[in-house]
Amino acid sequence: MGDSGAYAVSVRSERWSSRTADLTLPERVAWILGDDEGRPMSTLTEPAGLLVAAAMVELLLDASLLDAGTAYRRGPVEVTDPLLGWVAESLLAHGGAKTDLQHAVTGHRGAQMIRRTMDRLVERGLAAREPRRVFGYLAMPVFGSALRVHEVEALHHDRAAVRASLEGDEPDEAVAMLIVLLHHGRRVRELSPVDLTLAARRARAISDGRHVTLGVAQDIRRLISPTVGAVLAALTATTVIGSER
């Protein structure tokens, strides 16, 4: 199992399975995008941006990171989770300037984010690494591609809980944050909703602060959606620039 520590209260939810109640938000994004066959998110296109956005949302809600307008600053609350701490240090290492967000979501740092998040799922006993044969030899592929969900029943439970809110149930803050991330990352489809059109419309409405309590709506409009949008926009801009060279 991984390191224990204090986690943001907003990430906790009675709707998660008992095995996943203490997952951080980036871990939960990776976890919930596992498929029902038991394979976790590993082939997701450009997943680093979504994971970094999730980490930043948790850090900001927990006051471990502060939005200072054009930059992010260290907050008064100490970061106790190693994955979240690594993200915070990566952001602040460049002065926290929002114009430098691409440093946290692309290249080597982005690959590290994916690897560290997947490693945490293994450490927690939720996923396991599976060897595979390549030309008759036993080999372990690079990050993620040989991971398989170990606690499949817990995955089914958690995916069903999120789908319920996409189908009409009012989400609590933890579920709402996850839905906002999935909406901005265009990953609602991967939850396999019964009615994709309805689920996408519902996710968009929640990302606008509707169908949730007033306090959650304020967090979404003030903090969650803007943060996720900024991180993914930085990733998209960097990808476009890189493709033109």
TrEMBL record:
Report the locations given in the UniProt record. Golgi apparatus membrane
Question: What are the UniProt keywords, alphabetically?
Answer: Golgi apparatus, Lipid-binding, Membrane
Q: How does it sit in the membrane?
A: Peripheral membrane protein
Q: Which domain of life is it from?
A: Bacteria
Question: What is the name listed in the Swiss-Prot or TrEMBL entry for this protein?
Answer: GPP34 family phosphoprotein
> Is Membrane one of the keywords?
yes
Q: Which Gene3D superfamilies match?
A: yeast vps74-n-term truncation variant domain like
Tell me the organism.
Answer: Actinomycetospora chibensis
